[in-house]
Amino acid sequence: MPTPIAGPLRSSASSPAPDGITSTLRDSLDPDTTADYENRKANRITFLHPGYPDDDHDNVLLRLSAFDREGGGLHHGTALSACRIIAGNTTTGFFKEHRASKEIGLRFDELLLAKKYYFYVSNSDNDVYPIVPSFQHWLFPHDDFPTEWSAMEPEDNEPPAPPPAPSGLTAYVSARDKRCRVSELDGSDYFTRAHLVPAAEKDWFEANGMDDYNFNQQLSGKYITDDVCNAMALRADIHLAFDDKKFCIVLKESKWVVQFLGQTARLGNKYHNTSIHLLDVSARFLYARFAWTIFPLLSGFLKRQSARELLVRNASGKQELKRLELPERIAAFPALNSSSRSVSPKKRRLEMTEEAPGLEAQDLVSSPEDSAQAPSAKRLKFDREAYLRVQRPSNPLLICCDYNQAKDDARAGLPGRPEWGGRYLCDLCLGVDYLEDRDNDVGIYHELDQYGRTLFSGGVQKGEATSSARVA
């Protein structure tokens, strides 16, 4: 496989802090090992941009969950990689606890323990360095790929068998991995093939020349991401959490490690800080997946009223610096008006995750009488909307799969989708299903919509669902 020039991702200092603390990892093949993990909402670290004032949280770049230690802690290398990515792949970034303090002295694998840090790319407090607004505007750092990540991909890393055609990718990955790579001992019965760079990002993939890292150099068009080096086996519920950006795979102690970024009922407790064993998977694709997972966390920074200095990709594929006010950002980046839970795949049937055990399709309607009145065609899709509505009793209009994002949009005064009566649906979750229903069969769409308005008018009533488990 091609190996580009490797660039450094230097730690903030070459020597550790006197009481340097690291995470305890567990191995996916050893059921008796335990890892550090404390899943508390308060355990998060805020990263600040020193070029903006501290007033009214105007300089909050992003917040990352700090589940790596009791009381809160976050792997330094992971946080540094995230901030350097969003700052346009800078290789000079570092953290300070306060504007007037020195840069912190931590090695790559030690933990950040404070509640907030400033991320600098130079020593100037007046440096309003630009931020890349989204994954689609990010350029992959071929020539400055972090040395630590590059070291995980030996030059002779080639699969033992010839590359399969796209139609044979799932069978190939199944034969190669044999079980879920995360759950390992518990994932040998049912598992799915998961992309690292999602298939929906094929335009970004092609524009950034990521096919250079494909084992099958003949892939193109809509199949360009269907390469064995961009795929791994995951259990169905873990795959769903992966696409929901609940976790990513990062580098810790020269191992691939599961890093949870969002709260879950059980998956985080079982698999956070688990080192996993990957076969013939490209470190470049894992790094791109990490970036894809991180970029949505910038939404708060982009929605503030202040003008933002941004690195925006132009029609020629090059990045250019632009200073955009909030209305310009909303017009330029549609994702600020709606948030996607997952872009892989485009349409997904309702699947019960580990956060909603035992819920069956019949639990999604309120009574046999209501069930009889519901249209039989497109029933599963409506049940999916109905189930999400049950989870949002405070405002039935906020039915986007990312409830927190929908709530923030509503509070900020951003409009919902007019084609859905002002509701907060995004094109890549519920919206795409119902838009196709409307376009393909207008009668059924209006019948479903009228049934939904009748069933849920006035808010969710007692007895309308038998489960209060959340899936979003």
Strand order of the largest sheet: 2-14-13-12
Q: What series of H and E elements makes up the topology?
A: EEEEEHEEEEHHEHEHEEHEHHEEHHHHHH
Largest sheet: 4 strands, mixed
Number of helices: 14
Helix content: 25-40%
Task: Give structural notes.
- The chain is globular.
- It starts with 5 loop residues before the first strand and ends in a 16-residue tail after the last helix.
- A hairpin with a 5-residue loop joins β15 and β16.
- The chain is built from 14 helices and 16 strands.
- The strands form six sheets. Strands 2-14-13-12 form a four-stranded mixed sheet. Strands 4-3-8-6 form a four-stranded mixed sheet.
- The protein is of the alpha+beta class.
Please render the helix and strand layout as text.
Elements: E1 6-7, E2 26-27, E3 44-48, E4 60-65, E5 74-75, H1 76-86, E6 94-96, E7 111-112, E8 116-120, E9 145-146, H2 147-150, H3 169-177, E10 192-195, H4 202-207, E11 231-234, H5 236-243, E12 247-252, E13 255-260, H6 267-271, E14 274-276, H7 283-294, H8 299-302, E15 308-313, E16 319-324, H9 326-332, H10 368-373, H11 379-390, H12 403-411, H13 430-440, H14 442-456
Parallel strand pairs: 1-9, 2-14, 3-8
Antiparallel strand pairs: 3-4, 5-7, 6-8, 10-11, 12-13, 13-14, 15-16
Helix pairs in contact: 13-14
Features:
472 residues, alpha+beta, four-stranded mixed beta sheet, 14 helices, disordered N terminus
